[in-house]
Amino acid sequence: MSRAFERPAAATVSTAGSGPAPRRWAGVATMSASGLSNQTGAAIGALAFPVLGPLGVVAVRQYVAALVLLAVGRPRLRAFTRHQWWPVLLLAAVFGTMNLSLYSAVDRIGLGLAVTLEFLGPLAIALAGSRRRLDVGCAALAAAGVVVLMRPQPSTDYMGMGLGLVAACCWASYILLNRVVGRRIPGAQGAGAAAGVSALAFLPAGIAVAVRHPPTAGAVLCAIAAGVLSSAVPYLADLLTLRTVPAQTFGLFMSVNPVLAAVVGWVVLGQGLGGPEWAGIGAVVAANALTIATRRD
Predict the structure, then answer these.
(1) Mean pLDDT of 8-20
(2) 245 contacts 256 by C-beta, under 8 angstroms
(3) Which of 2, 59, 184, 259 could lock 206 by a disulfide, CB 3.0 to 4.6 Å apart?
(4) CB of 95 within 8 A of CB of 174?
(5) What is the residue-wise DSSP string for 142-175?
(6) 129 by DSSP, 3-state: which?
(7) Cα 173 to Cα 208: distance, rounded to the nearest angstrom
(8) pLDDT for the residue 14
(9) Which residues of 151-190 are buried (b: 16+ CB within 10 A; e: fewer)?
(10) pLDDT top residue among 165 and 7
């Protein structure tokens, strides 16, 4: 999504869940706003595809994410060791590839299907190594949903589907790398550094897009809005949410993102889905929700 460098905030969840009920409800409201902002930003960014293309929109989004995370994380780059730089550079590469593959998938198969396929990444991490029968059933349910979504049809865009799966692999790698970065670098410094490196990597692409296809003011505003709504707002919202909401609840609520993406894609972009597509999305969402809701750790 989906998504900016919001996951490093998970390091703050150890104190979550101790606040009163009103704070919990405020956390739920913040999660709702964050998810809606994330998917709305992606949809608005898609409006700029005819002018900037997915590459141009992602480049602008990377710039916005870098500005936000560098300001929040304030990384001390000169103090980083080689042991710390390697996971940061890998995280930057995965972050850029994840967003580019996701937005390219959105351009080809629509927001709802692209985000659903991308969501297989964190679901795979949640299921990996589990020996519970329930999780095996959840994996089978998610697989059935993917089969429904990718069933052969005359209009099936396999390239778009493949890009969605690439985004899923990147999101899974992103989660694992964030754990490594979080252990080696304090606070949000690692996330800020990775965002800055990713933005620098996309700078030549952004310039090339601007030279070949001079952007309109409307397209640039849409791309900036995508960066703010899909990067800055979710990241800052999650920082606040994870202080009052348990990690399990946070992960459970994240399950609704494919549904939000499908609804926003329909409302903003006119990307309607049929019954089978909704069934496939529902299967993936249900599998993730069951996995997290029944987790004991």
Answers:
(1) 42
(2) no
(3) 59
(4) yes
(5) HHHHHHHHT---TT--HHHHHHHHHHHHHHHHHH
(6) coil
(7) 28
(8) 40
(9) eeeeeebeebbbbbbbbbbbbbbbbbbbebbbebbeebbb
(10) 165
